[in-house]
Amino acid sequence: MTLPVVESGNTLAQSRTSVASVSSAHGSLEARKDTDTVHESSDLAEDPDNSIRPADCAFGWIPTLAVMVNNMFIFGASNSYGVFSTYYLNVRFPNTSASTLSWIGTLITTLMLGCTILTGVLADKRGYRLTAYIGTVLCTAAYIFASFCEEVWQLILTQGVLFGIGASFLFAPSISIAPQWFDKYRGLASGVAVSGSSIGGLWFTAATQAMIDNLGAAWALRILGILTFVVTGIMNLLYFRRVPAKPRKTVLDLHAAKRLTFWLITLESFAVYTGYWAVTFYIGTTARQIGGTYHDGSNLLLVLNAGSAVGRVAAGFIADKIGSINILCLSLLLTVVIEMPLWMTAQSLAPLYVLCVLYGLISPTFISLNPVIVATYFDTDTLASVMGMTNLFSGIGILAGNLSQGAIFDKYDRRMQFTNTIIFSAMFILFAGLASLALRYHIIRKGSNRRFLQIL
Asked: Where is the composition biased (Polar residues) (predicted)?
């Protein structure tokens, strides 16, 4: 059978959105030749060789790997929050509702994504490094302040709000680096960059659990803060642009909002983020419900993040061959098939481990592929604005999804099972899969790419 490759890092056909001109997330060399409208960024000025390098050059892997390391700390906090969630829900605040406690982890990712619509403007105007260093300071302060908190509302403001805003300052420049340095290997580079989030969740989970057990939650937070300050502070120095940024006249791109492509991407992003985090937040509590220990819960998160690290890189590599929208559609639909039967029927730890392996390998591909899709189908001059707008809706999806899941667990599952919570999560991921199929059909119908690949 033949499958249309809706887009690929190797071949991009001309469309009415000038896809061929988009060779990087912040602009191709061709689109930047009119240098009288371009200002030099501080990140280029600090580069000892500040000439514009070609796409796919070896130097691009230096800032890409720096992003990967920083993503360990940006997303490590949210991907390993299940350890804190299990501890808060069962030990420190057992009489506090799950929906209330879910505000902490929810706000981390919601604000990290949602605020990029503003922090992205700062990154373009003042440079990647300055923006990233603001994030480093805020995230460090959030950890330190949280370590002295005694009430849930205090943790919501520090570990949730302050860290989420700080993470947004780090994330805004990070999301743009890999796509702008690569064209042919854009999917692979984006997969490598975002794999840091899973690798961070992997060692963050083990380290956090060990520190809580041996030093207590307060010192666990302080040590994470110190590590964040030191490591991201060093990695920020390696945030180089490939080309200067064009000044943005507006935060929102209303022209892009008139395109169906934009709304299909936004709908898919909103829906998948609404349902995705249920496994991360509640798999540890599920382990406890069937007779496991706190360590069983953290081990499940370790397996989940390990699978995710492999899956994100593999998804980017495969996407360069057969198209990122094709991989996105397949992974979202398979996630539903995996999540519902394995989680809903689990009576022992074995199916939970199988769930975490498969869910980690397959489900998070959207995190690495969505930025590639946006970079492929939107013009360089509007790309940063479009990325910020889609991230805003993703953040809203996280907020709506995580709070709803906590309320469902409290009211309908009565904190004794997760049947209704699982159904809620899976149905939104299914909806995201259908939206991605609609996006694929829309792109093919518009003739953005007519290359076909033989699938055996």
From this structure: 17-26
Alpha helices in 290-377 (DSSP H): 294-322, 324-344, 349-362, 365-377
8 Å CB contact between 333 and 430: yes
**How far is Cα 274 from Cα 399, in angstroms, rounded to an integer?**
7
**88-131 pLDDT tens trace:** 887 888 888 877 887 888 888 889 988 888 888 888 788 888 99
Its pTM stands at: 0.72
Q: Tokens standing for 358?
A: 């498969």
372-385 residue pLDDT tens: 888 788 876 666 67
pLDDT of 201 over the 80 cut: no
Domain map (residue ranges) of the chain: 2-26+40-454
Q: What share of the chain is helix, strand, coil (3-state, %, to 5)?
A: 75, 0, 25
Q: Which two tokens stand for residue 63?
A: 């800032």
**Which fold would CATH assign to domain 2-26+40-454?**
Growth Hormone; Chain: A; (1.20.1250)
Contacts of 392 (CB under 8 A, 6+ apart): 113, 114, 116, 117
Q: Which two tokens stand for residue 362?
A: 């397959």
User: What confidence tier does 42 reach under pLDDT thresholds 50, 70, 90?
Assistant: low
Torsion-angle region of residue 191: left (phi > 0), alpha (psi -120 to 50) or beta? Answer: alpha
